[in-house]
Design goal:
alpha/beta, 4-stranded antiparallel β-sheet, 10 strands, 64% helix, binds adenosine-5'-triphosphate
Length: 615
């Protein structure tokens, strides 16, 4: 069991009850009106059983009294004498109660369904909103992924908890109403019942805690299982799974993980079965003991037949209710333990945020961006991704970054957009630390298209509009961005043009080639009014001519704006005003293409290598 797994003991369970009030406040937030209606309906419903049983007792006592009094022999006689009128009134009352109970039950289910739905929507939106504010680093951290995964499950998985809590509330009121009835006859009856049920309560709590601990400890396994199931059967992976014959390997890996969980879970379930059977038997014994007492008192005339029915009825109901209450109380506490993950997730705060008094981004940028002796390590890694990095991105200039795989090119882009903050040194914009500026404005100013851009399963137009989602209805803007990125030719070939659904996730979707996707992605860059435009190798799948053309246009169209290009193709890179050569997270050299090829160094060497390939 990992150190952070809650131990399978009672205190963890009791402690989890602290989650109930915040959970209820979430319910209230989701819909105050429905919540109030629900509580009122449940309360009314809670008092029905005791009322019905009591009226039943009154009916029996009256029937017994009337038949003992030796009244008329015929029904008509009874009617005329008027003796039976109060009895008829009681029967009608009982009938009305039964009908009301039914209607209330249906209203409760109706309100419950609506409230649960509202709650799912509300929690989902809060999860999405909260996730949007968190650091990229959080998403790249596996333990955070586990937490997020568990929290996400809470959205659907813990919703029945609402019903459980409400039912619990209703049952408590019903129990209290019966207990008051029993107390009137003999307080010991109530004590006896409660005592007999305590062992089952602890038993239930113990086993629920064990199950939770197991689930918690195996969260990482489950994520892997979901992942395996996903890669075994999705459009994105089907090609490789077939070509490499991965199916048996995926299947075995899945089975190994699933079996481990199954075996551990079965052990808990087995113990629960035997222990709980014993504890429940205890309860049954106590129940029949009390029942004997009631029968004896009736025989000796201390209780009426009506009392006997009321008491035995109350007893039967109380036992069922208390048992249900105790077990659902413990399962409710168990469910509440799962809420820890949800609330944990909500308490996670981003480290990268706007300062309290942010500076506005200069319009226009005058000097540009500058890295001053910047060092950065990815969380959980010992080695530096960039170190001692000093470079300038002057306003209005087109700069290319080159370097071998892992040289730190993408990391520079992430630092520029403040997806991460440097561990050493600082990055400035017009002389002020990036951290002093408004974060949202900064991200709007830096338009980046990454090499691993997302292929959204939406329409072609929407795929482009992603670059400036507020302008998704601005068709002329979308069309002109598409033209600049050469994506218009791709779209012209689609049967439904800009409104064509793309991607293979949905039946209506039409998949595109790698290069075609890239053109759509590049069009996103033109949707923005970004002052710094970055293309981080989204052109890798374009053929050499298309990349050349895309970059040429990019340079022309970004005239007067600052632009950063990342590419491994020298034919494209040479268009830049200045080329920065990175090696091992540092600037190794910089200059124009002509300057760099003229002197011996990494650039000339790599350029020569690539040129040879074409000879
Ligand atoms: N999310 C991450 N978590 C941990 N380490 C990372 C992460 N992303 C990159 N790195 C590491 O940081 C270093 C720099 O990576 P970076 O992505 O900046 O290289 P790059 O120059 O863009 O490479 P490429 O040409 O392959 O795209 C590499 O050693 C890489 O392994």
């Amino acid at each position: 069991m990992p150190p952070d797994a809650p131990s399978a003991n009672f205190s963890a369970r009791w402690a989890a009850l602290k989650n109930i009030p915040p959970f209820l406040s979430m319910v209230w937030r989701a819909s105050p009106g429905l919540t109030m209606a629900m509580v009122a309906l449940r309360l009314a419903r809670a008092l029905m059983p005791v009322a019905m049983l009591w009226v039943g007792k009154l009916i029996i006592d009256r029937v017994v009294a009337l038949s003992a009094s030796g009244g008329p022999d015929t029904l008509a006689g009874w009617w005329d004498s008027g003796l039976a009128h109060p009895l008829i009134g009681l029967v009608l009352l009982e009938l009305a109660l039964a009908v009301a109970q039914d209607i209330l039950g249906r209203l409760v289910s109706y309100t419950d369904a609506l409230l649960q739905e509202k709650l799912v929507i509300d929690i989902s939106i809060r999860l999405m909103d909260h996730a949007a504010g968190l650091d990229l680093a959080s998403f790249e951290d596996a333990s955070f992924q586990d937490r997020l995964d568990r929290a996400r499950r809470q959205t659907m998985g813990r919703i029945p908890l609402l019903n459980q809590i409400m039912q619990q509330l209703q049952d408590v009121v019903t129990v209290l109403s019966f207990a008051v009835g029993l107390l009137v006859y003999n307080p010991w009856l109530v004590v006896l019942l409660a005592l007999a049920l305590i062992p089952s309560l602890f038993g239930e709590m113990h086993f629920n805690a064990r199950t939770y601990a197991l689930n918690h400890a195996r969260a990482a396994d489950r994520r892997e299982r979901d992942y395996l199931r996903m890669i075994a059967a999705t459009a994105e992976t089907a090609k490789e799974v077939k070509i490499f014959g991965l199916s048996p390997w995926l299947r075995d890996r899945y089975l190994t993980l699933a079996r481990r969980f199954y075996v551990e879970n079965r052990a808990i379930q087995r113990r629960q079965l035997s222990v709980m059977a014993l504890l429940t038997a205890l309860g049954t014994l106590a129940y029949y003991g009390a029942f004997l007492w009631i029968v004896a008192r009736t025989l000796t005339g201390q209780l009426s037949i009506g009392d006997l029915t009321f008491l035995s009825g109350s007893f039967l109901r109380l036992r069922g209710l208390l048992e249900g209450l105790l077990s659902s109380f413990s399962s409710m506490a168990g469910q509440a333990m799962f809420l820890d993950d949800l609330f944990d997730f909500f308490t996670a705060t981003p480290a990268i945020a706007s300062p309290t008094e942010p500076l506005p981004i200069p319009q226009p940028i005058v000097q540009g961006f500058r890295f001053e002796d910047v060092g950065f390590r990815y969380p959980g890694r010992e080695d530096w991704a960039v170190r001692g990095m000093t470079l300038d991105l002057r306003a209005g200039e087109t700069v290319a970054l080159v370097g071998e795989n892992g040289a730190g090119k993408t990391t520079i882009v992430k630092l520029l957009a403040r997806l991460y903050d440097p561990d050493e040194g600082r990055i400035t914009l017009d002389g002020r630390d990036l951290r002093d500026y408004d974060l949202d404005q900064l991200r709007a100013t830096v338009g980046v298209i990454f090499q691993d851009f997302v292929r959204y399963a939406v329409t072609a137009a929407e795929n482009i509009a992603i670059g400036r989602i507020e302008a998704r209805d601005d068709r002329p803007r979308i069309v002109s961005s598409a033209e600049r990125a050469l994506a218009d030719q791709v779209i012209a070939k689609l049967p439904q043009g800009y409104d064509q659904m793309v991607g293979k996730r949905f039946a209506r979707g039409l998949d595109l080639s790698g290069g075609e996707w890239q053109k759509l992605a590049i069009a996103r860059a033109y949707m923005r009014d970004a002052q710094l435009l970055v293309l981080d190798e989204p052109t890798a799948a374009l053929d050499a001519r298309a990349e050349f053309e895309v970059f040429q246009r990019f340079r022309d169209l970004t005239q007067g704006r600052t632009a950063l290009l990342i590419s491994h193709r020298f034919s494209s890179v040479r268009m830049a005003d200045r080329i920065i050569v990175l090696e091992g997270g540092r600037v190794q050299d910089q200059g124009s293409h002509e300057e760099l090829v003229a002197r011996p160094g990494r650039y000339a060497e790599l350029f020569e290598l690539q040129a040879q390939g074409y000879r």
